Amino acid sequence: MVPSKPINFFLAPMIAFATALLLLSLFLEFPPFSPSLPTSSPPSSTSPIPSYPSSSSGRLGSRPKEAFSDLRGAFAKWDAEVGCARFRKGRRGLAPNASALQDSGGGADCGGLGPAHVSVLVKGWTWIPDNLDNLYSCRCGLSCLWTKSPVMADKPDALLFENVNPPERRWKGEPLRVYIDLEASRKRSGFEDIFIGYHANDDVQSTYAGSFFHNNRNYHVSPDKLNDTIVYWSSSRCVSQRNQLAARFLSLVPHHSFGKCLNNVGGLDKALSFYPECSADASAPQWWDHLHCAMSHYKFVLAIENTVTESYVTEKLYYALDAGAVPIYFGAPNVWDFIPPGSIVDGSKFSSPEELASYVKSVADDPVAYSEFHAWRRCGVLGNYVKTRAASLDTLPCRLCELVRRKGGRDGRTL
Ligand SMILES: *[C@@H]1O[C@H](CO)[C@@H](O)[C@H](O)[C@H]1NC(C)=O
Ligand SMILES: *[C@@H]1O[C@H](CO)[C@@H](O)[C@H](O)[C@H]1NC(C)=O
């Protein structure tokens, strides 16, 4: 059907479709701007990173309004006025909840893990990217063959199922059954020996902060931000509550909306005519290939999760960070456990769209305040983000092979 592509923007709609009806009743819970919502709830002691007002760069509005588009020029102003030393100091003592992420095993004891070899066969049609297929050299002398080919792995230690359920029974000597569901509901099949989800409590965690979620992307990053149009949005699954939230906010800020929902650029596929330098493959331009490049022209990217639930932070946010834009985020209440300090505008902390829009517009006209949102990357202040990336799809093969090995592979205990 469809080859592997970035997950949520493109295929999650498809993956999610089957389960969407079920989820609707359980999970769809949007953050409308309303006094009853967590807008006023103070961040918990474990996710306390306040981004408003940005702490090191002084009070927003204390500097004269200054339109700017040159990003490096803005960074130089921030360096002169604030600088990494002050930024680091301001972030000291802020500890996100480390348990939101699994340890990827760096320091852990090898305990009989290797030398050994484990093979995992990925079954059936799935969004899991083809180019994750590889022979991995993992820690402790463990090697890991991850493949979609039943020729390459004719006697696999584990079978990975995504689109279909594993067999109900596993007989002695048969491969372990692994099931993955990265959607918000983390729905187990009920027949797996190992479950992979986005949450730290799942057997193996796979976050969305991995480069395998954006194969074939165009890596061009614009050095200039648009000065007049400050927010990028692109959504093609027009869930009504997300749309309403976006519409209320976007009506208050100059923006471009490229997707099917609330499109205001004169139709679909306009990003390439706006930004020809973003074309990755002129013979077959696909919107997901130039997504990052298009985003990089904007100061802000609106990112609204389709489901608001703990730890469900998807590529919508990471794409924007990877593109050098600042996400305006509505989603997981514990999002700060996953991202760099001071890297996003947390939309749920504002009491109205007007308040949020006025904040965003002030930052857009203040090169020093805006640069502060990029300071994490420039100063190496990453918080849990290092763990978030280490627990992504990119490293899933080794982490799964390790667990398969610990469970004994084909010779592991049957249920
Ligand atoms: C920003 O936009 C304003 C109004 O369109 C324009 O006058 C100004 O020259 C622009 N500034 C930069 C730095 O591009
Ligand atoms: C920390 O994160 C874990 C995993 O998401 C969660 O179960 C736990 O409740 C969190 N602890 C606090 C204090 O928020």
From TrEMBL:
GO MF terms held by the record: alpha-(1->3)-fucosyltransferase activity
Pathway(s) per entry: Protein modification; protein glycosylation
Fucosyltransferase C-terminal domain segment(s): 229-407
Signal peptide: none
Keywords of the record: Glycosyltransferase, Golgi apparatus, Membrane, Transferase, Transmembrane
Membrane topology: Single-pass type II membrane protein
Protein name: Fucosyltransferase
Main location: Golgi
Primary gene name: FUT13
Lineage: Eukaryota, Viridiplantae, Streptophyta, Embryophyta, Tracheophyta
Gene Ontology CC annotations of this record: Golgi cisterna membrane
Subcellular location: Golgi apparatus, Golgi stack membrane
Residue ranges with Low complexity bias: 37-61
Family annotation (Gene3D superfamilies): Glycosyl transferase family 10, C-terminal domain
Pfam families, alphabetized: Glyco_transf_10 (PF00852)
Record keyword Isomerase present: no
PANTHER family: ALPHA- 1,3 -FUCOSYLTRANSFERASE, ALPHA-(1,3)-FUCOSYLTRANSFERASE 10
Enzyme Commission (EC) number: 2.4.1.-
Chain residue ranges for the region called Disordered: 37-64
